[in-house]
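Q: Got a minute? One more chain.
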Amino acid sequence: MREAMEAFWEHGYHGTSVSDLLSEMKLNRGSLYGTFGDKKKLFMAALTEYGKQGREIERQVLEDAGSAREAIRQWIDHAALMCTGDPGLKGCLGLKAAVEMAPHDKDVADWVKTMTHERELLLAKVIRRGQAAGEFTSDLEPRAAARYLITAVAGLKLLGTASPSERDVREVVALVLRILD
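A: Always. Here it is, folded:
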């Protein structure tokens, strides 16, 4: 699965041929179709695995950190690390799928919607925790603030494809975190 995910990540859905997938995964055509059904089902399986891995990292960062402020900072810092150097140039598989496929593919659009909703709920919970502890302003509506943070991180990931410096990314992160004050 990792090989398929990497191929789709690098080339996009339309830019990845079945031959590319067979070569990357070291499978024959019959095995690919027997295991996954077709290229689209393999793509959805790759997105599902990508989302699962991302959610696990987010849960660890957001639920295991001490204070809510530190949890949000670590979450954004993790994203920021993926926005510079080679990882930044690679971009985000989820964002690539959203741009390439979601406008005309219901399955991908539903996946994007589900992932975004789950992330929003998780972040809103941390924001509420921070508000209760006096770490964040009580003027914020937690779910709206969560959507803002998601949007800002998505923008950082897009910025990463332009190869920004670590300093450029850190400046944006500092501004994003101000919303919580």
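A: The mean pLDDT is 87.
Q: Perfect, thanks.
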